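Quick check before the chapter quiz. The format below is the same one you will see on the exam, so make sure you can read both the input and the output lines.
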Amino acid sequence: MTVTEHEVVIAGGGPTGMMLAAELQLANVDVAIVERRAGHELESSRAGGLHARSIEVLDQRGIADRFVSQGQKYPLVWFNVNPLNIGDLPTRHNYTLGLWQKHIERIMAEWLSELSVPIYRSSEVTGFTQDESGVDVALADGNSIRAQYLVGCDGGRSVIRKAAGIEFPGWDATTSWLIGEVEVSKEPQWGMRHDAAGIHGIGKVEEGGKTWARIVLTERQLVPGGEPTFRDLTEGLIAVYGTDFGAHSPKWVSRFTDLARQAAKYRERRVLLAGDAAHVHAPVGGQGLNIGVQDAVNLGWKLALVLRKSAPESLLDTYQAERHPVAARVLQTTMAQIALRRTDDHTKALQGSFTELLGMDEPRKRIAAMMTGLDVRYELGDAHPLLGRRMPDLDLITAAGPLRFFTLLHGARPVLLNFDEPGALDITPWRNRVQLVHAKYEGPWELPAVGRVAAPAAVLIRPDGYVAWVGDRTQQGLADALTTWFGPALSSSSC
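Here is the expected output.
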């Protein structure tokens, strides 16, 4: 048996696991991924897009253009069957990026290769034991890895979550859908169709010189488990459309349900959960991949500071405090959308009222900000509307010239922006951990779902892009915020 050592082991090399690995590597943490697949290629397309906040997160690391250049922009999000225009949301990325998960994973894998993150492929975590100083991670091949922390990014059936004994409460499935990609010999009826069973759809996917039909069918009776066959899909097509359109050569066929569950806690001592390992729900609205990536960006810098002993281990408790409510709300909104898809007259009446409501500007903007992730606010106080919210990507004027704010986050380090006179703020005890940038900004400060807010004199921004402190031409509360998020002050000799 071979024992390898890393500071952090991540079980699962999907988007959440890869994003977390990149965040840790940017902080010079020795991190490795254990992934059961031999390569990053996916047979199925899986998730189909990135929402505005996820694109902002990638932009904060300087890699958003890699994804945007290979996807298609749509100036809307969907809430159930309601398309919501997001072209007027105050962000550079006021669109949904249509890009299949297999391409998202390919681009991420290329980034990890540049960062030299090791990935143990064709391998799988089968269990672990933990003690006061670390975790012994058992692999399927009989070898093991010793790590200080283990993070389960291994999906809804997470081995890590189960082995940690973390409960996974929620709601059982009520509806199931068949989904697949096939070739067809007859032109299908593209678009959505409604009947007594629910909503069905056939979309066009063009790839490799071929045109595929991506099919989603609401099953007339709940099928809670089991892998469907191509025959199940063709019989489902005939039941809904009266024909299978000459379907042949299936690329893949799968099934999903509206099962909704969330881990009771995201941490058990030295073991943490992120992404689908922590929360599962129906894919309506395209939330899953997006909140998983944002879980990773919330956790990565915190774990790095704890490993470097710059911050106490209690900093990891803020990961659950901040991210658990976000996923809980996503579970609620996906359940609401599934409920609105019922076909009885009462639900149709409710959907009609909801459609009318979303036709109004203020409700549309609020729901759109929620669906895009732009309205997330962590409970950091109410002294200023910016507190706990994502920092806008402002066009700043600095001594080094004009720059976008997000460029200051490329290295995943915190930033203190001073809009007052140079020298107004002194952060000498934290200067090795926090960037102090003197800047000017003349434009409006506008937040999604909030509107315009008063211009601050200074703003402290965490590596994940969220505001931790807002100044009003004094340093009141700044030292406390710096200590809370980036550890205690260092002596002058240590600086």
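If your answer matched, good. The radius of gyration is 24 Å.
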